[in-house]
Amino acid sequence: MRRLLAPLLPRSMRPEGATIPVVRLHGTIMPSGGQFRPTLSLASTAGALQKAFSYKDAPAVAISINSPGGSPVQARLIFRRIRDLAAEKNKHVIVFVEDVAASGGYMIAVAGDEIVADPSSIVGSIGVISAGFGFTELIKKIGVDRRVYTAGENKAVLDPFQPEKEQDIERLKALQLEVHETFIELVKERRSGKLVDSPDLFTGLFWTGKKGMDLGLVDALGDMRSFLKARYGEKTRLRLISAPRGLFGRRLALFGADREELAPRAFGGLAGGVIEALEDRALWARFGL
């Protein structure tokens, strides 16, 4: 309310110092919301981003990123939304890296006009990874017979309950190369003139913020509050932006559900959430976190 009334007040009564809206993007990147851990997707971030860029008098929008990566599609969608809003609202975007901005997390980070990291932050990992499990020996031991019927010879590609096929692996690698090339082009476009010519830059390796600055992946070292106050003045205020919520919040989805439906939903959500949490943990563990 104070921000809305400020333009109507006499200049002598207006609050001094710039107000910088801050959006915190924390979690693995995946299309659906996490049951046990925070996750990032276009759907979960669009509201907060729109709200942050609506601050007319803000000289910049600050984005704090802490993500080990995940879905390349969702990462690119978030990147695109940030850049579209920056162009539409004519805002300077400063991205601040917390513990890690790697893989898809770094893809989001390059949406910033500037990237600021802590010297010990982890940045980079410009590559593509696919991981899973194979259960062929397990189902043999417990006496399970896997039966798959398809219309189309490639409908059961990389089925975890069947032996791997060389042609399926080659097809997956070809897809990965295409996604990797898109990632590389995006980084080169956004970091044009800043990147150091290094043979390791796009191999999937990752570095500290300090080394990342030497490689041109990062523009400066520091923390958000100190950096913004040095840039816009000691009276600069940071305003954390959260996603808009409905009148009844997320609980609204439970109204009208039959009691008989809630138990299987809860059980299914719990089982899926455990797997999701394991996958999430594996992504963070790659960077020692």
Features:
alpha/beta; 2-enoyl-CoA Hydratase, Chain A, domain 1; 8-stranded mixed sheet; two-stranded parallel sheet; 10 strands
**Total number of helices:** 9
| Morphology | elongated
The average pLDDT score comes to: 79
CATH superfamily: 2-enoyl-CoA Hydratase, Chain A, domain 1
Gyration radius, rounded:
23 Å
What is the count of distinct domains? 1
Cα separation of the termini: 40 Å
Strand content: 15-25%
Number of strands: 10
Concise summary:
This protein has 9 helices and 10 strands.
Topology:
Blueprint: H1 2-5, E1 19-26, E2 28-29, E3 39-40, H2 42-53, E4 60-67, H3 72-89, E5 92-102, H4 104-109, E6 114-117, E7 122-124, H5 136-141, H6 166-190, E8 206-208, H7 209-215, E9 220-221, H8 224-232, E10 237-241, H9 259-285
Helix pairs in contact: 2-3
Could you characterize what this model shows?
By secondary structure, the chain is of the alpha/beta class. It has a single domain, classed as 2-enoyl-CoA Hydratase, Chain A, domain 1 (Alpha-Beta Complex), CATH 3.90.226.10. The chain contains nine helices and ten strands. Strands 1, 4, 5, 6, 7, 8, 9 and 10 form an eight-stranded mixed sheet that branches. Helix 2 (42-53) packs parallel to helix 3. It is elongated and about 75 Å long. 27% of the residues are buried. Residues 248-268 have low confidence and may be disordered.
